Amino acid sequence: MSGAIENCLAKSVFYGVELPEPLRVSKSQLYTLADNVLGHECVCAIGVFDGLHKGHRTLIEAAREDALRRRVPLVVVTFDPDPAEVLFDRAPRLLLQDADRLCALASLEPDALLVHAFTPQFAALTAQDYIEEALLPSVYPVAIHVGSDFGLGARGESHVNDLAALGQQHGFEVVAHQLVTHGGAPITATRIRSLIEAARLDEAQTLLGRNHFLRGEVIHGRGEGAGFGFPTANLRLSAKDCLPADGVYGCYIIDGARAWPAAVNVGAPPSFATKSAPLLEANLLGFNDNLYGHTLSCVFIKHLRPSMQFGDLEELKRTVFHDIEWVRIHLGETMLEVDCDI
Hints:
CATH class of the largest domain: Alpha Beta
Number of strands: 16
CATH topology of the largest domain: Rossmann fold
Number of domains: 2
Distance between the termini: 8 Å
Strand order of the largest sheet: 1-2-5-4-3-6-7
Order of helices and strands: HEEEHEHHEHHEHEEEHHEHEEEEEHE
Helix content: 25-40%
Number of helices: 11
CATH superfamily of the largest domain: HUPs
Largest sheet: 7 strands, mixed
Strand content: 25-35%
Shape: elongated
């Protein structure tokens, strides 16, 4: 890879990771990423893994080491959609969309991913029902790794001790991992969401082990950015996404293997009277193309300023040019080629 920036971007968006066609096993989907998985004993790591932060990676790496010692495959087990979307009327915002979460897990190179379809009916299973009707018909675990706060079964009422009791009954060991801490507090998806929503990107990046990104389709916008002389891409995001606080950010916009430095506005700018859904509006440097209809990734690097109300158009222009100049100096002014060799 040509440089650290390209490597950072590839790592952040899991560039180049592709999932094979899944196999239907029981009522779940099994993505086999290595040979000799089906019908073999295995070690499982089970979790939602929203964001796939450093705590999740530590757990999965420990499960991998266990699998290597036992000379069996590693199978990561997760759920689609995120159970919170089914269980709660107001689910937490997602650090990764479900498809990106699966690619993130595949980027860690387990031997297989087992994905349970999380429906209201699935949510109603007891812990014993889950093990006997969903997990064991799909894989043959000799050990299961989970976080110490793992909840299982209807309403999450069963915990690690209950899982261990089922393991004694069905012949698998349960390994519960204490939550990884940083700065004296556990690394959790909830903590990271709070940091992102407060625009504390550096701290969130430390806990994630990568830069936060959002993905969306380019749609037609207001056109003010183009009026200032900068090509503008307006990304339509999912209402489920974990957005940073309203304001302007230094970012990279990625389309396939191409990445452009950009000053990105999150939220509806208060300078314009029309109210609309929150926007992600990117002013791209070094860009000369048409991206309408493309799905782009926006990788957040630095919070530049909060959203502001401007007294007149000239004040707005001066501020926008200042934002663009920061991006030019710190992120560059030409397109980068993102490589998949991460």
